[in-house]
Design brief:
By secondary structure, the chain is of the alpha+beta class. A hairpin with a 2-residue loop joins strand 3 and strand 4. The chain has one domain.
């Protein structure tokens, strides 16, 4: 299949790389969250105005939040962002990495 982008010009979808549809794996063998409950996660994701919040159906804990602009699948093994990564999404990621995965926040020098 030939590209319709003229040589030397950036493809429009290239601008979104790393800003949408990103998976972040934490521990592929992890099957449950030890430090948070589903209610904790529901409260933490509220600023993203989820249209629905459902339990994951992957054989272990986790949830799927359908947002107005996409979806976040959050499993004990990692997070899958099927949405644009906005400051609000980053705030949720900060929360889940500290509280759900027990990782220390990065220090900003």
């Amino acid at each position: 299949m030939k590209s319709s982008t003229p040589p030397g010009q950036e493809r429009s979808e290239a601008a979104g790389i790393g800003r949408r549809n990103v998976s972040i794996l934490v521990d592929k063998n992890r099957k449950n969250f030890e430090m948070i409950t589903e209610d904790d996660a529901k409260r933490a994701i509220q600023p993203l105005s989820p249209q629905s919040f459902d339990a994951a159906r992957f054989g272990h804990e986790g949830f799927r939040a359908n947002l107005p602009t996409g979806r976040i699948d959050c499993l004990p093994s990692g997070v899958h962002l099927w949405c644009n990564i906005t400051p609000e999404v980053l705030d949720f990621l900060d929360w889940i990495f500290v509280n759900g995965y027990g990782l220390s926040p990065a220090s900003h020098a």
